[in-house]
Specification:
single chain, alpha/beta, Rossmann fold, CBS-domain, 2 domains, six-stranded mixed sheet, four-stranded antiparallel sheet, 20% strand, globular
Length: 398
C-alpha cells in the first residue's frame, strides 16, 4: 500500500452504471459497474480470469468502448470526448513496456510530447527528468535501443513514457508480469516511490493478490461479469472479507499477505558498519568489532552496497577488496516484509540490507525482526497458522 503523497496531481475517476456487452455473448463482460477512485490514489483491480478487470481498465481510456454508462475523470464525462485526444491525456503502461523497438529510449519517451508539439528544450528536460525519476541515468540510457536493455529497464522506460505529458491518470495493465521476481519487487518499489513524489491517480490490473495489497491504497476484487465482491483497503479485505468469494479468493495467501501490510521502514533496522574499497582492513575490522559486528558493508561512492563480507574475509587482504557480490540481498524501505523474507530465502541469508529510494544502504533487517512481526500478528489474532506458513514458505519457496 502506498504512502500518502505530499502533492496530488491526479484526478478522480468515476464509473457510473458502466456495462460492456460483446456481440454474441449472452452475459455482459461488465454489468452495471459503479466505482469511485479518489484523486491521487492507487487502486488495484484483481480477480480470476474473465472477471472483467482488463476490460474495465481499457474502458477508462476507451481502448474498449463501454456499451452503456458514463465514465468521468474529474468532472469530465470522457465517454463524450474524442477517444484519441482522451488517450493523449492518460498514461498507459502494458506488460513488457510496449516500446518501439527501433527508436531510442529518448525518442520513445518523447513520442507524445512531440505529437503535442512541445518545445525541443522542454522535451529534452522532461526526458532527462523522467529517466532520473525511474532510476535510469540519462547519459547512459537516452540513446540506447530497447533490445540493449533488460526487461526491468524496458519497463521503467515504459513508465517514463506514460508519464511524459504529465497525465493526471496512469493505467497499468499487468505491468510487471513479464519480469523475474526480484526485478518485479524493485519495479513495485519504484512505482511506490514515483507515486509518493507525483501523486497521480493510478489504476493497475494484476493477477497477483500480494501485489495488489502491496501497491493498492484500495483493492477492487471482481468476480465474473465485473461484479464487485469487495472494494476496500488491503487491511479491510484481509481482516474482514465481505463475501465467501473474497474469503476463498484471498485463501491461504492471507497469512503472507499480512506481511505485505507491514513495510520495511516500519521495523527497526540493525545498525551497520560501512567501508570503501581500498580502506585499511585492520581499521575497518577494528571499527566493526568495537560495535559488536561480525561483518561490514562495502559501499560505492554513492552509498550503494557492493558486498557484505565478514570481518574475517576483510582481514584476508591488507585493504578492503573491490569484489562485487551480484547476489547481495537488498530491499527498499518501501518494500514489504514479505519482499524482505523472499530476498533472504533467495540468497540463503538470515538478513537483508535496507536501501533508500536511491539505493544507498541505510541498515540491515534480520530474519528475527520478521519473525517478531509474525509472532505479533498471531498474538493480535491474525491467522493462527502464521508460524507454520512461514516454515512452509521457507522450505518450499513461493
Amino acid at each position: 500500500m502506498t504512502t500518502a503523497s505530499s502533492t496530488v496531481t491526479g484526478e478522480s475517476i468515476r464509473l457510473d452504471g458502466v456495462v460492456k456487452r460483446y456481440r454474441g455473448q449472452e452475459t455482459p463482460a461488465v454489468n452495471r459497474l459503479d466505482l469511485t477512485i479518489d484523486a491521487g490514489q492507487i487502486v488495484a483491480f484483481v480477480g480470476p480470469s474473465g472477471c472483467g478487470k482488463t476490460t474495465t481498465l481499457k474502458m477508462i481510456n476507451r481502448l474498449i468502448e463501454p456499451t452503456e454508462g458514463r465514465i468521468l475523470i474529474g468532472d469530465r464525462d470522457v465517454t463524450a470526448e474524442n477517444p484519441d485526444k482522451l488517450r493523449q491525456s492518460i498514461g498507459y503502461v502494458i506488460q513488457s513496456g510496449g516500446l518501439f523497438p527501433h527508436w531510442s529510449v529518448a525518442r520513445n519517451i518523447s513520442a507524445l510530447p512531440r505529437v503535442l508539439k512541445w518545445d525541443k528544450n522542454k522535451i529534452a528536460e522532461r526526458t532527462d527528468y523522467l529517466l532520473d525519476l525511474v532510476g535510469l541515468d540519462a547519459a547512459t540510457f537516452a540513446r540506447r535501443l530497447p533490445k540493449d536493455m533488460s526487461g526491468g529497464q524496458q519497463q521503467r522506460v515504459g513508465v517514463a513514457r506514460a508519464l511524459a505529458a504529465d497525465p493526471p491518470v496512469l493505467l497499468m495493465d499487468e505491468p510487471f508480469g513479464a519480469v523475474d521476481p526480484i526485478t518485479r519487487v524493485r519495479l513495485q518499489d519504484s512505482l511506490i516511490d514515483i507515486q509518493h513524489k507525483l501523486g497521480k491517480t493510478i489504476v493497475i490490473v494484476t493477477h497477483d493478490f500480494e501485489e495488489a495489497t502491496k501497491l493498492g491504497d484500495k483493492v477492487l476484487i471482481l468476480s465474473e461479469g465485473g461484479h464487485v465482491e469487495q472494494y476496500a483497503t488491503p487491511e479491510e479485505i484481509l481482516t474482514s472479507p465481505a463475501t465467501p468469494f473474497v474469503e476463498e479468493f484471498v485463501g491461504a495467501g492471507a497469512t503472507l499477505a499480512h506481511l505485505t501490510l507491514s513495510r520495511v521502514r516500519d521495523v527497526a533496522h540493525e545498525p551497520i558498519v560501512t567501508a570503501r574499497v581500498g580502506d585499511s582492513a585492520t581499521e575497518v575490522a577494528a571499527k566493526a568489532r568495537a560495535g559488536g559486528h561480525t561483518w561490514v558493508v562495502v559501499v560505492n561512492a554513492d552509498g550503494t552496497p557492493r558486498a557484505w563480507p565478514s570481518v574475517t574475509e576483510v582481514l584476508s587482504k591488507p585493504t578492503v577488496s573491490d569484489y562485487t557480490d551480484h547476489r547481495l540481498p537488498t530491499v527498499a524501505t518501501s518494500a514489504t516484509l514479505n519482499d524482505a523474507l523472499d530476498a533472504m530465502l533467495a540468497a540463503s541469508q538470515a538478513g537483508v540490507l535496507v536501501t533508500d529510494g536511491r539505493g544507498a544502504v541505510q541498515g540491515a533487517l534480520t530474519i528475527e525482526s520478521v519473525m517478531e512481526v509474525i509472532r505479533a500478528q498471531r498474538a493480535a489474532g491474525h491467522p493462527e497458522d502464521a508460524q507454520d506458513t512461514y516454515v512452509d514458505h521457507a522450505e518450499g519457496g513461493s
